[in-house]
Structure prediction request, 437 residues.
Amino acid sequence: MSKKRAENDIMDRLVSLCKRRGFIFQSSEIYGGLNSCWDYGPMGVELKRNLRDYWWKAMTHERDDIEGVDAAILMHPSVWVTSGHVAGFTDPLVDCKACKLRFRADQIEGTGCPSCGGELTEPRQFNLMFKTFMGPVEGDAAIVYLRPETAQGIYVNFLNVLAPSRQKIPFGIAQIGKAFRNEISPGNFIFRSREFEQMEMQYFVNPKDDQQWFEYWKEQRYAWYLALGIKQDNLRFHEHGPNELAHYAKAAFDIEYNFPFGWKELEGIHNRTDFDLSRHREATNVDLSYFEESTHERFVPYIIETSAGVDRTLLVCLADGYREEEVRGEKRVVLGLSPKIAPIKVAVFPLVNRDGMPELARKVYADLQKCFKCFYDDKSAVGRRYRRMDEVGTPYCVTIDSQSLTDQTVTIRERDSMEQIRVAIDQLVNILREKIV
Ligand code: GAP
Prediction:
């Protein structure tokens, strides 16, 4: 099989697994689908929530120097003029004169249409922001934008957070939320969509310390993916050259992942200098500078930004964890997700549906449910039940068998090694908590 076909094959299998097992569906599917928008099903929504929580915990709860916000998606339209998005958040677009398909000019090799070979128009700049109208009148004065990044909601709240939190520089503000971009060429499943979610953190620093904090955040964010269980061989840094740097950035590194369709950006770490706060200060006349009491300096803070996509990270977890194995002559599909983010942490099975096993299993299940997202299954042979759980990444399966009825013990079966240990029911929560959290 060619490399390209094998790559497509893995993506096809992942997409099919996501549909079949309730992770991700195409938006508005019964209407034929809405291109590049995705809905998360019962498994997907748990996985996504766990991923967000894992980021939030690492970035805010486990630190004293980062506060959270949740800003509105709709912002004053002038924000996007000041930020440079109205003028500059564009991609060069070309149309095929023959088949009418549109492409990003910078992604085309050669001069003709990639689809039919037809003649292409001259490139023109296409703004990626979605526009809508606020209030009942649809005119230019009522235009508002769906935010294309969550970062601006942090900058405009710099003073609002600084005062009540009594933080001192260096400190950060974190936010998770939806962002929208009218991408010219969305694709690769949830890798590039038009509605997606970002997890962004803006760290405000003294300008003379910017390099040190930039290096610090590069390391921290890379380590976060490793702690999430992503294979190190599939991660690398890519430094932006002068032609790649965004209009606001002095330096930028992407953390890239080796997706089935190649190395691509997963997260950006940017030194945005004082660009954002200075521009907002100029535009509003609100003083966004900071007074450093220890040195009596006044400065506009520099910002080190870490900007990750929730959906893209979720795709990384799926792609990195997906594997097919042969076990005793049978194929098993495993999603090797970290227990920290697995949608279901523990499945509970009675070995058979009689002799008092279901009753005890239900009791064990009810106790575990108070601590973890669990799943109860008493249908089909136990081997098949294990396989179904492997496929959605459930790290532990607890089985109640005939011995359980006599000595109040159960087995815990681990997803990757398939090894089983026997433990006392009254120890189960503690043992599982240690393995999962
Ligand atoms: N505030 C800076 C910023 O937004 P970006 O590199 O444009 O930087 C950051 O985006 C991250 O957001 C990307 O690394 C990616 O994970 C995610 N992202 C961007 N556009 C996306 C899209 N169309 N679909 C899914 N995720 C996207």
